[in-house]
Design goal:
Layout (H helix, E strand, L loop, with lengths): L15 E5 L5 H8 L3 E6 L2 H9 L6 E3 L12 E7 L9 H11 E12 L27 E4 L5 E5 L4 H10 L3 E6 L16 H4 L5 E7 L2
Parallel strand pairs: 1-2, 1-4, 2-3, 4-5
Antiparallel strand pairs: 5-9, 6-7, 8-9
């Protein structure tokens, strides 16, 4: 939001914006405050129910990001904060669908966990600073329930893979942002801490344009 990767806040007013993998629709709520017309889409009905409970006053759509239920050229902008793309085996399909529903000149900004993160243990202390796996190992991370059914799957793709996916879907990549750890953040969260954050990027943000 502070980086204005979707454009200056004053230029968002009246824009049709699709949030993909919206979860509780945090981005859409912010966009609505700026005067945009957001639509929040997520595969999880439960997440969208939570968005409704906390005050979402814009359309909520339960659908697959690989088969968007919108006409061609329906939106001016699209965004996704760690949503959909890390969890699909065919990201080009999702990217192509996003491009289809954008108007010419439309911008899609999405963030994923930085691919380098997969090479390091998920630990906030010094033990999280030593490479423990191959950056090039694209084996998905899978969590299973007691019966062996997959309940969480996240796909690892390298930075190069992500760039090629964007191009293959017909987008033009205009920026790749690797945010630095903010100096004001002194807390630990999960595997992240100032120690790790000052040395290893945690997020990669891709800024794409449909020509």
């Amino acid at each position: 939001m502070e980086a204005e990767l979707l454009g200056p806040p004053e230029e968002l007013k009246g824009k049709d914006v699709l949030e993909i993998g919206a979860g509780a629709a945090q981005c859409s709520r912010w966009l609505a405050v700026q005067g945009a017309r957001p639509v929040a889409l997520d595969l999880s009905h439960r997440q969208l129910q939570h968005a409704l409970r906390i005050g979402a006053a814009f359309p909520l759509v339960c659908a697959d990001a690989g088969a968007l239920p919108f006409a061609d050229g329906s939106f001016d902008l699209a965004c996704s904060a760690y949503g959909a793309l890390p969890f699909v085996a065919d990201p080009v399909l999702v990217l192509s669908e996003v491009r289809r529903v954008l108007r010419p000149g439309g911008r899609f900004v999405f963030s994923v966990t930085h691919p380098i993160r997969w090479a390091f243990p998920d630990e906030p202390g010094p033990e999280g600073l030593s490479v423990s796996a191959s950056y090039f190992d694209r084996t998905p991370y899978v969590e299973q329930d007691e019966e062996g059914h997959a309940v969480y799957v996240e796909h690892h793709r390298t930075v190069g893979d992500r760039v090629r996916d964007v191009v293959a879907a017909g987008f033009r990549l205009v920026d790749l942002v690797e945010p630095e750890w903010p100096v004001w953040n002194t807390s630990e969260w999960g595997g992240w801490s100032p120690l790790r954050g000052n040395l290893i990027p945690g997020t990669a943000i891709f800024v794409c344009v449909r020509d």
